[in-house]
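About this split. The held-out portion is used to measure sequence recovery: a designer receives only the structure tokens and must propose an amino acid at every position. Recovery is the fraction of positions where the proposal matches the reference. Here is one held-out target exactly as it appears in the evaluation file.
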């Protein structure tokens, strides 16, 4: 009689993971087949990117038409800015209000501390809002 030792496969170990009670196994996982082709992204989901010159154009339009940015008519103001921007630079910016908020945040993070330092170091009279 030949004595053969049975082939033992390793027992799976469960590894605890952080967050939401998920656990992972140490056993090899089967890979799902790679997608054959990805469908193209619909044009509705593409972001409109503006270069620095186009961003400046957006800011200038907002300044030029700022008197129309009044309570109860702000939506009409942003639609007008969108339309004018499309006519003048040929790009349809879906949400110019959001773009302006992002530009303002970037300015505040990058430039405002420098301007405050300049104000205090040379005693210049800058806007009280800086």
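Reference sequence for scoring:
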């Amino acid at each position: 009689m030949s004595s053969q030792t049975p082939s033992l496969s390793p027992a799976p170990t469960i590894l605890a993971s952080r967050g939401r009670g998920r656990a992972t196994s140490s056993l090899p996982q089967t890979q799902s087949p790679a997608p054959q082709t990805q469908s193209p992204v619909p044009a509705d989901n593409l972001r409109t990117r503006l270069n620095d010159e186009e961003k400046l154009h957006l800011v200038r339009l907002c300044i030029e038409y700022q008197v129309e940015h009044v309570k109860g008519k702000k939506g009409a103001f942003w639609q007008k800015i969108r339309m004018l921007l499309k006519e003048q630079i040929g790009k349809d910016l879906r949400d110019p209000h959001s773009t302006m908020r992002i530009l303002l945040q970037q300015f505040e993070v990058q430039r405002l501390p420098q301007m405050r330092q300049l104000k205090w170091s040379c005693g210049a009279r800058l806007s009280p809002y800086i």
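Annotator remark: Residues 45 and 94 are 10 Å apart (CA to CA).
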